[in-house]
Each structure stands twice: as C-alpha cells, then as structure tokens.
Specification:
Length: about 170
C-alpha cells in the first residue's frame, strides 16, 4: 500500500472525470460533498434487471458498475463554480487485468486469489491523495501482489502524465 499526493489537482480531475484515462476501473463506491452529500453504491442493482439480463455475463460482466458508465454522473455532481468540499472514490481495477499485473515479475500468487486491486481517491478540500490496496479471497503471507500493484499505479500515473509525490 502506498499513498500518493496529486500535485496538479485540476489536471488530475480532467483526466479522471472528463477523459477516459480511468476507464479500466470499476466503481465500488463514491461520496461527493458539494451543496449536498451524494453517495453512490457501485454494486449493480439486482432489482433493476430482468432475470435474463442479470444472468447474462456479457451484458453485466461485473458486480460493480464500470467507471466509464458512472463517470458522467459524478462529473455532473462535481462541476460548477464551487470546488467540492470533499469526495472519496473507491475503484477496483477491472478483474480482466489482474493477471497482467501479477505477470510483471515472478509472483506465486494466482489471479483467482486476488479479489481486487483497489485505488482510493480522496479529496479533503485542501489536497488530493491516492491510496492503493489489495484485497484477497483469503489471507496470504506473500506481499508481492501489493508491491506489483503499487508499481503498476505509479507507472499508470507516469504514462498518463499525472504529477504526484509519494507521501
């Protein structure tokens, strides 16, 4: 787990809310505090779908909503003359990419042991931080996946030209 401070918040927010830079993520949850506090549960709602739609893994491949689907809603809640008081997003890397993260170096952990590679994005009114995390289906002593995820996030930010400093 690492914590990174974003040094150019405006640039980050443009890449996060306007561009497709973070579309390889799913949204677990969001809390956006502007004139009201809005919370979004990223779990897809069973009651919304027919039985056929719910069971169709091509139509609904993940339990969480894709960030690219929810991004415009979050953008609408944040945009305006006033800076938000705060916000917090919990994103998961799309599971299809888990194997690629683990294959970057020698790693004994298999993709089916990793529940999620997580990215927390938090703005407190003064600064924006990213915190990485890894969730497993069972306890593992091996910390290699955590280290690989941390490296992957830093490489991702570098590739997207998002300025940060390690806390």
């Amino acid at each position: 787990m690492i914590a990174l401070k974003i040094t150019n918040i405006k640039q980050f927010m443009n890449k996060f809310l306007v561009n497709d830079d973070f579309d390889s993520f799913l949204l677990e949850e969001a809390a956006i505090s502007t004139y009201n506090t809005f919370t979004i549960d990223g779990h897809q709602n069973r009651a919304f779908y027919s039985t056929e739609e719910w069971e169709d893994r091509e139509l609904r491949p993940y339990d969480f909503s894709m960030w690219k689907t929810v991004r415009p809603v979050c953008f609408d809640l944040i945009k305006g003359k006033h800076t938000p008081a705060s916000f917090h997003f919990v994103l998961h890397l799309i599971p299809d990419y888990t194997a690629a993260v683990l294959q970057r170096e020698e790693c004994a952990v298999t993709p089916d042991q990793v529940k999620a590679f997580v990215l927390n994005i938090k703005y407190d009114g003064t600064g924006l931080t990213l915190v990485t995390g890894t969730a497993f289906h069972t306890f593992l002593m091996d910390k290699t996946p955590d280290e690989l995820w941390d490296k992957t996030v830093r490489k991702f930010l570098d590739k997207k030209e998002i300025a940060y400093e390690k806390l």
